[in-house]
Amino acid sequence: MSDAVQTAPESPQAAPAQGGARRRTRGALGRPTVRGIGLIAGLELRQRVRSTRWRWALVSVAALIAVVTGLIVIATPDDAYSPGDLVFGLVVYFVLFVGLVISPTLSATAINGDVKEGTLAPLQATTLSAWDIVLGKLLASWLASLAILVVAVPFMGFAFLDSEAHPGAMLTVVLVLAFELLLVCALGLGWSALAARTSASAVLTYVTVAALVVILPILFVLLMLTMPSDHQVTHVYRDYPYGISNIDEERYPYIDESGERFRCQEDTWTSTTYRTDRLWWLLAVNPYVIVADSAPTPEPPDDDSYYYADGILDGIKMGVRELRLPPAVYEDYCRPELSDEELYRREQRDALPPTWPWALGAHALLAGGAVYLAARRVAVPYGTLPAGTRVA
Amino acid sequence: MTTTAEVEAPTALEATRLRRAFGAVQAVVDASLTLERGTVTALIGPNGCGKTTLMLMLAGLLRPDGGEVTIGGLDPMQDGASARARIGWMPDVLGTWDSLTCTETLVTFGRAYGASAAEASQTAYSLLQRVHLAEYAAQPARVLSRGQKQRLSLARALVHDPDVLILDEPASGLDPRSRIELRDLVRSLASEGKAVLISSHVLSELDEMVDEAVFMARGVTLGESAQAEVARAKARWRVVALPGQDVHEALSSATRDWSPVEGADSSTAVVQVADAEDAAALLGKLVRKGVRISAFGPVGSALEQAYLSLDQDRR
User: Fold this and answer.
1) Among A45-54, A186-195, B296-305, whose mean pLDDT is lowest?
2) Which of the four pLDDT bands, split at 50, 70 and 90, describes residue A209?
């Protein structure tokens, strides 16, 4: 009782001291500075340039891309029917693959590796902020992975000139590839902050990249198959007057390619369709889809074709957009020209806004989150330490 | 709340009742210490007693679960970077950037503390001279020996001319000559007005280097009792006479508080003296009595003695 009486008047005074910023639970992130980021990035790059055989690594990457580009050029047909951006698209996709494979190694041990070496704590003890350290490391690993892109640009340029891609495609492809490499570097940095062991962070970074590239598309297919929906679909098919000698021209008003008369017959039944319009976003965040979706493609010709895909990038772009539409309810196999619904759907599809800004936005969030986690991990004074680690 | 007026006060760093746990392990239970400008303080304790954890908290790298740290009026928890700017910390783990030269390493650290490139390289040059690494200035850190890395690490802690130096096991792995150089360097840093906290296992080296000692056991800094133990240890002198001489008898008749030495005969004993003056008087008395003394001096290192007796208490 007397204790309560005594302590009560003190608590209002103690409250501001205890609350607010008085007792932080974790270290301060500080403020990023150009100096600090530049210093750390310079340090990291200098270490990397001196301690690795980076010249040989880049020459090997160039040789690999050169061989694959050459094989693609030889293997693809280039006269029979317009291959569009096929050569360009394949080379770009190979470069993306190489980038996604190599980039994780550039940042996935950036933080836990330094902790293991004992080189992080002395830096944390300086006046550099957590943002300086983390953004400097991100910049360094990004610049290193951009070296891969720089090596690849001549080959992509060659493939570009060899293809009939849209003139703007080269620029968007390079920019999107650069951004995707930044994402992978940021993911690596994030995992290197969260995992205590360097081998674990490397694996986790690869798994995350694989999730975007492979696992989400698999999930797309599996989820699609587990969510069938029944629809009334009207099918229109050709009905020929087989075996009838006196053909009533009014009943069979159309003539096909070989001069036979036919009529269109409608039939409606319930069929199983898949609601890809609810799941397409699983594909939209795929780096390969983003590259395709963001690359400008030639205007579709004004003709009767429902699909018009000019090569691989355009094909993927069109394919994903088609998946965004709800299932068709009117399947016309009869008339050679497009049905009203097909015209409508084509119009709808062409009017769909591109997905790449959203997908890049999602990637930016992912990268930002990873970098934020890394900065929190590096901020001192440490509140809780990640399991299995020590400060120095 | 401390003010800027206190920046010139003799106390450079004050820590009160710090505690810190890692999960279920209570690494530091209750640690308090005060570092004065111009003095060297030893932090002494057995392995795993929380010395490194305490030093990390003082260096602003680890948040205490409770207690206060004040560095020249700044709280490392609040004013992170500006408090860290006043502290030079030398970790017990020697992390070096293997492909950077010694000069580059120090320049990088100087710039990390906000110095310009020109200032930083000037500081790097003079520090390399000071820690006797000038001839390795252009060598990558990977060619350095352990002792040389240790000295580079010490230079790294000095690049921003800090008020407080926190040295975690700076003498481990050093050859005798480097230890003497380290001792001289630490003393000269203290004479410049820096407050130095140094942890070490080489207690005999510390004896000659330190002004104050803070003992630590099981995460607790031992205050008065440890100081008393050091004073008592300083008062223990060993008397060795020629074989056949009875020192025990002579000391008893001089009504001295003495104890026999285990495994030795009555020609050897350890005796309590008040101070050096008293010791000299005792020696004169023994010689006058005809005891043929062959050795007479303080027993080992005072810090070591104190450490051992505290360590015994602990068990």
Assistant:
1) B296-305
2) very high
Are A50 and B99 inside 8 Å of each other by CB? yes
Does the beta-carbon distance from A127 to B94 stay under 8 Å?
no
Cβ contact, residue pair A51, B77, below 8 Å:
no
CB contact under 8 A, A125 and B85: no
B132 CA: distance to closest CA in chain A (Å): 21
Contacts of A66 (CB under 8 A, 6+ apart): A155
Query: How many CB atoms neighbour CB A178 within 10 A?
Result: 15
Partners of residue A39 in chain B, C-beta under 8 Å: 108, 111-112
pTM of the complete model: 0.85
Task: Give rounded-to-5 percent helix, strand, coil for chain A.
Answer: 60, 10, 30
Q: Which residues of B touch A123 (CB under 8 A)?
A: 112
Residue of B56, B85, B140 with shortest CB distance to A127: B85
User: From the list A117, A382, A385, which residue is nearest B95 (CB)?
Assistant: A117
In chain B, residues with a C-beta closer than 8 Å to the C-beta of A118 are 91, 93-95
Number of H helices, E strands in chain A: 17, 4
The A residues from 96 to 155 touching B (CB cutoff 8 Å) are: 114, 117-129
**Which residues of B are less than 8 Å from A128 in CB distance?**
81, 112
Nearest to B89 among A35, A125, A382 (CB): A125
Q: What is the pLDDT of residue A302?
A: 67
CB B236 within 8 A of CB B299: yes
Please give the Cα distance from A307 to B216 (Å, whole number).
Answer: 79
Name which of B136, B200, B204, B142 is nearest B173 in CA terms. B200
* Domain extents in chain B: 4-228, 233-313
pLDDT tens by residue, B13-70: 999 999 999 888 899 999 999 999 999 999 988 888 889 999 999 999 999 999 999 9
- Picking from A189-193, B100-104, B216-220, which range would have the lowest pLDDT averaged per residue? B216-220
Domain positions in chain A: 22-222+356-378, 229-350
Which residues lie across from B238 on neighbouring strands? B270, B297
How many Å lie between the alpha carbon of A126 and the closest alpha carbon of chain B?
6
Interface test with B, best of A31, A47, A127 (most B CBs within 10 A): A127
- Cβ contact, residue pair B96, A35, below 8 Å: no
Strands B66-71 and B11-22: antiparallel
What residues have CB less than 8 Å from A89, skipping those under 6 apart? A163, A165, A292, A311, A312, A313
Pick the closest to residue B64 from B12, B93, B29 (CA basis): B29
pLDDT band at A78 (very low <50, low <70, confident <90, very high): low
DSSP state of B4: G
Complex ipTM > 0.85: no
pLDDT tens readout for residues B220-251? 888 766 777 777 777 788 888 888 888 888 88
* CATH number, span B233-313: 3.30.70
Domain B4-228: which CATH class?
alpha beta
Q: What are the backbone angles phi and psi of residue A232, rounded to the nearest 5°? A: -80, 115
Average pLDDT over residues A352-376: 94
Per-residue pLDDT of B164-207, as tens digits, reads 999 999 888 788 888 888 889 999 999 999 999 999 877 777 77
Burial of A72 (0-12, 13-18, 19+ CB in 10 A): buried
B104: alpha, beta or left? (left if phi > 0; alpha if psi -120 to 50)? alpha
Min distance A278 CA to chain B CA atoms (Å): 45
Closest CB from A24, A114, A381 relative to B62: A381
Give the per-residue pLDDT at A170. Answer: 92
Distance CA B55, CA B151 (A): 19
Whether residue B85 and residue A39 make contact (CB cut-off 8 A), yes or no, is no
d(C-alpha B53, C-alpha B26), whole Å: 10
